[in-house]
């Protein structure tokens, strides 16, 4: 058996999975917990991105005023 290659999780992959699971939820509500978890993961990733961007702006502002 081949070694498993780790797959990078990124926002686009999560959004793609979210769309696919949304279609599954429309047919069977048993998939709701997965749908909700994907929403949480996407929101957390976006929040981290926002924090990083805000931090970069602070650093840029400091350099501009120095």
How does this model look, in words?
The structure is a single chain. By secondary structure, the protein is mainly alpha-helical. The chain is 77% helix and 0% strand. It contains two helices and no strands. Helix 1 (11-27) runs antiparallel to helix 2 (32-65).
Furnish the topology, listing elements before pairings.
Layout: H1 11-27, H2 32-65
Features:
2 helices, about 70 residues, about 75% helix, mainly alpha, elongated
Structural class assignment? mainly alpha
Strand residue content: under 5%
Instruction: Tell me the helix content.
Output: over 70%
Number of strands: 0
Please report the number of helical segments.
Answer: 2
Secondary-structure element order, N to C? HH
What's the story with the biggest beta sheet?
none
- List low-pLDDT spans: none
End-to-end distance, in Å? Answer: 57 Å
Q: Roughly what is the average pLDDT, rounded to an integer?
A: 91
Q: Choose one word for the global shape.
A: elongated
Roughly how many Å is the radius of gyration?
18 Å
């Amino acid at each position: 058996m081949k070694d498993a290659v780790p797959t990078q999780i990124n926002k686009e992959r999560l959004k793609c999975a979210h769309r696919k699971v949304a279609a599954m939820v429309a047919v069977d509500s048993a998939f709701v917990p997965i749908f909700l978890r994907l929403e949480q993961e996407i929101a957390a990733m976006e929040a981290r991105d926002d924090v990083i961007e805000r931090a970069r702006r602070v650093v840029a502002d400091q350099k501009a005023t120095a």
